[in-house]
Sequence to fold (848 residues):
Amino acid sequence: MKQEKADFLGIPSFSSAAPGRGQVATPERWLMRQLLRSLGDPPIRVRFWDGAEMEPVPGAARTTVVIHDRMALWRLLRHPMLHFGDDYSLGRIDVEGDLVEFLDTVFRHRPRARVSSPTRRQLLERLQRVHRNTLRGSRENIHHHYDIGNDFYRLWLDHEMQYTCAYFPDPTMTLEAAQLAKLDHVCRKLQLKPGETVVEAGCGWGGLARHMARYYGVKVKAYNISTEQVAYARERAAQEGLADRIEYVLDDYRTITGKYDAFVSVGMLEHVGAEHYHELGGVIDRALKPNGRGLIHSIGQNQAQPMTAWAERRIFPGAYPPTLREMMLIFEPYNFSVLDVENLRLHYARTLEHWLQRYDAHEAEVERMFDAPFVRAWRLYLASSIASFTSGKLQLFQVLFARAQHNALPWSRAHLYDNEQHKR
Amino acid sequence: MKQEKADFLGIPSFSSAAPGRGQVATPERWLMRQLLRSLGDPPIRVRFWDGAEMEPVPGAARTTVVIHDRMALWRLLRHPMLHFGDDYSLGRIDVEGDLVEFLDTVFRHRPRARVSSPTRRQLLERLQRVHRNTLRGSRENIHHHYDIGNDFYRLWLDHEMQYTCAYFPDPTMTLEAAQLAKLDHVCRKLQLKPGETVVEAGCGWGGLARHMARYYGVKVKAYNISTEQVAYARERAAQEGLADRIEYVLDDYRTITGKYDAFVSVGMLEHVGAEHYHELGGVIDRALKPNGRGLIHSIGQNQAQPMTAWAERRIFPGAYPPTLREMMLIFEPYNFSVLDVENLRLHYARTLEHWLQRYDAHEAEVERMFDAPFVRAWRLYLASSIASFTSGKLQLFQVLFARAQHNALPWSRAHLYDNEQHKR
Fold:
């Protein structure tokens, strides 16, 4: 079991018997300084295995990255975006001080990307080729992340198993309350009315579909290619007496058929790939009635950059957070009007803080389910996601849209904030 | 005076002594049918000078376009997007029934544009070459529209001389109330605090600057290249005791200097030209403090298409309503985070309905100021603008943004809708 899961993360194992100790050499220090410079000289400390230290901004560091052996150093120098993650997972690199603060500091100091760099574009294309989101590629990519066990996700997600950004109109809310607030926020934006039909692309464990069917009186057809998630979703809908109002379909969004009053997709676009946005737009165009509304909720970014190699390889194969500009490739060809875009970046940071706290509280169980590298890898993934949102590296866009000629629009967005009206 | 203003619109005069009457010929009817087909066969009626009629959808027409002579017909067939407007202005083409309804019907039936058509792109580029928004070109373009006389605009704008989309949270509001609501909506989105500094690009007659200085306690530096508008704005600020808090600068937005807590631009982007968005982003990047916020309010569209030739030539030289995708060219290179996009399309239709009503009530005065073709041209411009917004041909985007690392964000947009808090 342990071995299988270690394979699953795909980190190549190599002897952890410390190779080539001795003192850190002058050329090694010089190369590390170049690396720090390329990162914009963040105020962190580097400590080598021999106790030697280095600080780009002397006296300013509150966190320290510890490199435990020479091989980890050379791997880091060669491909920092991949090997920091791998060697952190294997325990050959450590961080002293708060992990989130360390990552936030590093992300915050990174020089601004040059948007149209051809190198970056090529890199992006190369990455996307590796884990292409063809019908089959998508199944493999989604299986990698979402089918590692409902029991694992249950340890640290909320009761509705929402594995997407919650909505904290009050930042002191519990995670449970904020996830319900998110579900309501989405439903209100879509102005769902009893008796309407909704198609959902990428339904996770089915929580939004249950919420819409239960509280908004709609019929939902919800698509997902994760077998574990769909099994869970079907079982829960049956238990909760919602099976007659929700049909969970184990299939790709590209196979959606029928006409609906609303299209909704929360947290799927990250797995679609920019090269398929035109196709996704076509699916929506086919599925929406003339007065239909649509909402896409997705992680995004300000500038087109590939995910870090480590996250793309070990955590989310085939994933890519689009820019708003790229998202428009879904809407423009079909003359959809974008009605409302809300950026919930800091809400995702807050959501992830809750997840990380719960995750850490269940560390021992996670290690029993998997192994120590898995525990560290997922901690790094959750922590670096927090830092990505707090440092503005990632965004969270909720985009509401409708057909260009749909004029039955509310005169303001006040209805989203009228809590009296929406009390259950 | 009259002659000068007729020259001003730039419609080439030609003899209005009816050239070549007689019956409409079969080839002429055939060509007109082709034109109607290319427009998607809208349910309108065409009546020729000899009384003959044509209906793409028999019995469905509620409005009729009347072509008074053969030359108007041939001009229309040759370049409908230019000559419909010109010959309507000259009274050689009429519309029976409601003008807005006629235009809405035509716009609504137009086949969906193919987004990436190279022909369209070329056309767009050609148009933009004619009225390039260089520093000098912009001055000429802006002078053409905005310097035709404050007295003229005073006839049909509100007291604050807001010549941009109002905000009607209640659609029965007066225009005056809706324009104030717009000003507040913008200020609230920007979260202006007393003592802060604001730079405004394209300030019109200075109403937003006055509103911000008076009710939000900020200092404003407002740029505009329309001499008549700036003269008016300065005078009014002096009269109202706001001159110490507002500096109106008669200069191009590209010359903005200094650092500000907020950048705002309402209704200027339409005149910037997509080829200058990168430059505009650079101006904003230079002007905004680290915790600064920005808002751009602009007419937009779902698909990149040039303005109709008539509007671009006679009404708004150099103007172009961007898609959201194009607007991102302002923000992406500088790593700005888009926080909120609101589409106020139907609010602009409502605003224009108010303007048209007031305009029509002052028809005699407008004709005294200018001449009959001017009266008809501007009526067509206002009516076709209404129809553009009701048919979804045009959008109105309010885009709020900030630097990527600015984390002092409100946890929800409820503060925009909390009317108790904002009562004056």
Q: What stands out?
A: The CA atoms of residues 154 and 180 of chain A lie 17 Å apart.
